[in-house]
Records
---
Amino acid sequence: GAVVSQHPSRVICKSGTSVKIECRSLDFQATTMFWYRQFPKQSLMLMATSNEGSKATYEQGVEKDKFLINHASLTLSTLTVTSAHPEDSSFYICSARDRGGGVDTQYFGPGTRLTVL
Amino acid sequence: DAKTTQPTSMDCAEGRAANLPCNHSTISGNEYVYWYRQIHSQGPQYIIHGLKNNETNEMASLIITEDRKSSTLILPHATLRDTAVYYCIVRDWYSGGGADGLTFGKGTHLIIQP
């Protein structure tokens, strides 16, 4: 299957700082990528849809000024958590939509564990 | 997207076939059945998807009933590494709905027993 990477895999930061997470599709181009968040013992929740060359669309209740998304190329989307607070500590997971070869499937990255002190 | 119903948890002995059911009685004609799994502290892993016919790949088989109201994911020879939460998701990818993110339910926690 297609491969999606995330970097970093784990980050610890102080409250008030910003953290950038990268999501890359390694062997396919993705015009659409997605960002999810998962709190302990809960299911993944969609945060936003990242569209190459245009603005991201955010789910209800997700602050676009706090979670900045940039989809600068067909293989890279970044999520920046600005002015992070302890309640932003979570597992952040991206996925990329692969529409090549007659398949339309989302492939997920390994996730980034964010801890805000 | 159609709603899916899965058992909360299942046990299976190592080496045996694991059969995970999913009900999707309100599925529409354009909707595909997708299966993902999430091993603890990792991102979800795509397993398989299908529309009407049964499908098989190197990971699993997907059996869809003729009326498409339910399906079963089969892991033919379960190993300890198959312990994970398995999600059945119904999606209309090919009619303009593919640009949306996935909605994850609670899934089935499959535990492979040694």
---
Amino acid sequence: AQSVTQLDSHVSVSEGTPVLLRCNYSSSYSPSLFWYVQHPNKGLQLLLKYTSAATLVKGINGFEAEFKKSETSFHLTKPSAHMSDAAEYFCVVSDANRDDKIIFGKGTRLHILP
Amino acid sequence: EPEVTQTPSHQVTQMGQEVILRCVPISNHLYFYWYRQILGQKVEFLVSFYNNEISEKSEIFDDQFSVERPDGSNFTLKIRSTKLEDSAMYFCASSEAAASASYEQYFGPGTRLTVT
């Protein structure tokens, strides 16, 4: 069965410093992995996705994530945090063999300190 | 850019009442989904819908829930007899094809349902 674990429920970083949001997954088959962001009172927006092409995936707003099969990880990073990055971030996995179902992690709330 | 829309943005209802949450998916999309997020908890899959029938549903999606695509544009979630624990944010999503590979799901802004 597929699952996803976000190791930190809250992360605080200072503006201008790097961001690291951790995600580990469990999947029986070749997974597709996504990061979504949810700003307050807004819907879920796709940041980036991994679909078995390049292991380093670049997304919007300067975010990127690296798929590491040996570590079953898909951590989200950004070199320099901006105040507008404050939001909830969800790591999501879908099994290649289960076309229509995706599983969300519990989310990590990112706080940006001035 | 096309987007998924949901109405209403906030619905307040009394326990035992029926509610219908409405969604307009992106027009060329073929797969439709409902998720819910109870306050402070993670987003949970409820149901997926393809070719005018349910393709998968979670254990949460019991007999009090139903989905329908009444016309070519709307996708609705009906809760027949609401309970306090149904209070949550409900997200609709759609995708061009299946959620694997290149076809990510596009989410609406959500409907906050409050059951009193």
---
Amino acid sequence: GQNIDQPTEMTATEGAIVQINCTYQTSGFNGLFWYQQHAGEAPTFLSYNVLDGLEEKGRFSSFLSRSKGYSYLLLKELQMKDSASYLCAVREPTGGGNKLTFGTGTQLKVEL
Amino acid sequence: EPEVTQTPSHQVTQMGQEVILRCVPISNHLYFYWYRQILGQKVEFLVSFYNNEISEKSEIFDDQFSVERPDGSNFTLKIRSTKLEDSAMYFCAKSVEEYYGYTFGSGTRLTVV
């Protein structure tokens, strides 16, 4: 079956670093995405990993280990505007193309 | 300028009524998707659409749902007879396969009363 797990909530301090973990078990794998979603808005793309290792993009980094079914999103120099839900999603190949399977999201609260 | 525009942004409808949600993807992407998100729950895949045909659909996408690209630009999701449990945010998405990225539209909040 399909299972994507991430913590429900996290709290961190402005200026700090936070790591959001995601573990997955899916029938197929063709890449892992991280999205940011503010309440009532659409998910916005943060990062994509298809090979093992670390991808860095400004204040955001994402890591993938395919053998462990594990990824994390690292946010540095946290700002208040980073308070949002962070969604881990696995791209699965299908007969007709592909689809994204999402985790339930991690609600991050950044405090002063 | 948004790459994917959805209309309406919010629609309230009575149970049993038909609704049509619209998506206008700017540019000539071939792959389009509909996802939905019930309040407080995860984003769920509904259907993928490639080369003007459904390529994959989920268990959620039953006979009351249909998708079309009627004029080569608009991409629509029709719900024939809405139920209370259809209340959700509906997102259209597009992708460019060579970049593997997905761009989501701003969403339509559907409220069935």
